[in-house]
Design a protein that fits this description.
This protein has 251 residues and is of the alpha/beta class. The chain has helices at residues 12-18, 25-34, 51-57, 70-80, 117-127, 146-157, 172-178, 196-204, 217-231; strands at residues 41-45, 62-66, 86-89, 105-109, 134-141, 183-194, 237-248. It has a seven-stranded mixed beta sheet with strand order 3-2-1-4-5-7-6, with helices on both faces. The protein starts with 11 loop residues before the first helix and ends with a strand.
Length: 251
């Protein structure tokens, strides 16, 4: 992968509890415009804790969850254990360990920016059945929302190596190139409601958050407390997102 799978080690519980979910309208879109049926096999590559897999499992699809990080894969097992049509594989975008021509659709939620695109492209072509599609999905923070914008300012002040959120963390040319400069693009509104514990957990779930031994950690948490108190209504705040969906085929 484009970075070590150890980047998320120790963060799986926070990630599972405090990251935004994905709109179920994604499945409806793929059904209506691209012929997704519940009989199709879906590979969720870089599945993380399984948040994206859920909406496809609820649609009745068999989902193969591919993830290189053991902590994240364990969290996915915990989240998805009630589903019968789920398989877990310790693998990466570049080496999924799946059979040739074995999946109908590949999805990647909040993960493509970690891939080595050349190696992943070869691997995706190998495991996909002919002429089927790849769906790249991100929840990007919506900077038009005043609180979300202030949270973004906080993240930029108190983070190590932060280069942007979701799809904005990489040049758009990478997406264009991977999907052969021929894809469809959609946006959906999304949000999450969080109390103070949730807001702190949301920040700590990312790879670039400060660690507890960082000299700025306490000031960061104090600043997050203040941000929450200044903006909370009835004990919660909302972070707003634009869910970005790229649908294309790789040849």
């Amino acid at each position: 992968m484009g970075t070590s799978e150890g980047d998320f080690t120790g963060k799986a519980e926070l990630y599972s509890k405090y990251r935004p979910t994905y709109p179920k309208e994604i499945v409806k879109l793929l059904n209506e415009k691209y012929g997704l049926t519940r009989d199709m096999i879906v590979a969720d590559v870089g599945c993380g804790t399984g948040a994206l897999s859920v909406i496809f499992l609820n649609n009745g699809n068999k989902v193969i969850c591919v993830e290189p990080n053991q902590d994240m894969l364990t969290a996915a097992r915990n989240l998805l254990s009630k589903y019968e049509k789920v398989i877990f594989v310790e693998g990466s975008a570049e080496s999924t360990r799946l059979n040739d021509n074995s999946v109908d659709v590949i999805i990647a939620g909040q993960s493509f920016h970690w891939f080595d695109e050349e190696k992943a492209g070869r691997e995706f072509r190998r495991i996909l059945k002919s002429n089927n599609f790849v769906v790249l999905i991100w929840n990007d923070r919506d900077m038009r929302d005043p609180f979300t914008y202030r949270y973004e300012e906080f993240v930029r002040e108190f983070s190590k190596g932060y280069r942007g959120t979701g799809s904005t963390a990489i040049p758009s040319e990478r997406i264009h190139r991977f999907l052969n400069n021929s894809y469809d693009y959609y946006e959906m509104d999304n949000f999450q409601k969080l109390n103070l514990e949730g807001l702190i957990g949301r920040y700590l779930s990312v790879t670039y958050s400060l660690k507890k031994d960082d000299p700025e950690y306490e000031r960061a948490i104090s600043s997050l407390h203040n941000l929450y108190e200044e903006n909370q209504k009835n004990g919660e705040i909302r972070i707003k997102y634009t869910t970005k969906v790229f649908v294309g085929r790789i040849k």
